[in-house]
Amino acid sequence: MVIADSRPDVVPEVLDDRSYAAWSSRVVAVIIDGFVLGGLIFLAAGAAYGTSTFTLPVPFPDSDGLTLAGLTWGSKVAVAAAVLSLVLLQAYGGATPGKRIVGIAVVDDQTGQPVGLVRTVLRDLAHLLDAILCIGYLRPLWHPEERTFADSLLGTVVLRTRTVRAHPLVARLATRRDGTWTGRPGARGTICEPATGEWENRVTGGVAIVSVVLACFSFPWSTAGSSSSDMVDCGFPILDSGAFAPTGVTIRADSSVTSERRFWVERTTINPAQEVTASWTWHRSTAEPTTVELVVTGADGTEEITNTVLPAGTPDGATDVDGTPFGDLTLGVSDLGPGWTAESSVIVDGQVVSSCSLNS
Description:
Elements: E1 2-3, E2 13-14, H1 23-45, H2 73-93, H3 97-102, E3 105-108, H4 116-130, H5 135-138, H6 149-154, E4 156-159, H7 168-178, H8 198-216, E5 222-235, E6 245-262, E7 265-271, E8 275-283, E9 290-297, E10 303-310, E11 328-332, E12 341-348, E13 351-359
Antiparallel strand pairs: 1-2, 3-4, 5-6, 6-7, 6-8, 8-11, 9-10, 9-12, 12-13
Helix pairs in contact: 1-2, 1-8, 2-4
């Protein structure tokens, strides 16, 4: 198949004579990109993102994957920018750093050009289909054009080359800047050949150096951590009447601080409490139904409530009521943000007989 071109100075290219990327090269490229992305994310978000040194840039079973939960807005933007940078390199240059180093590129199966942002994103999403039992990722081993399901769906092929035709947007930008488009990337006749030109070698060498540096940031050189607790103890006198009476409660929320150094950069992350617990003790058995309650209120007024009811006659030293340990209540606070308040109470016959509160 010969693709015509309106430009008189460009020789038509026979796209049927193509050298498809080996499956092993694609695997190596993904591994390199994983370490590059791990380094980028550490620089962008620090240890708050997690302790993973390797982040797969494609969906894969049991991978750490990409998640923005628990990050500040600034870190979320930085992580998104790190991921977007790799996506744009492939969308308009045909190759991520890993692909550039091993000498492969993702292009349109008809034009030989990078496929742009929309199709690149859709191709990444289509990799979810490849991830089912990993069949799609293994498909290049037997497919005549070495395509995954995502490649077939989006009309892309992965070729053994470092020099691809310029994406139309890139070509227009170059023409607007220089007045004419004469760059080697984009010239036909080289799409299926590994790059040997000085320009391509310099770019590849620069990408390799940057990738090695970023990979160094994907490995923790040293880590340290400490924990602290927000805690309050409330005690109550034992009544002389011989009736049931709460004697004390401890409300506690544990937080931690993590420091991690990668290469010469050290990042410290404060990990706020994920849950708050209230542990009650009391004297004598209950004479009527009694409720132990824990209420956590966020700074915006959002409430989380949990309680357990102690049937009349609950004895001293009992450890379980209807399958629920009584006296020990737990509520998650990770979704409430800073500034929450916890209050725990014992309620007898609709009346609060004892309560205690903790401010974060």
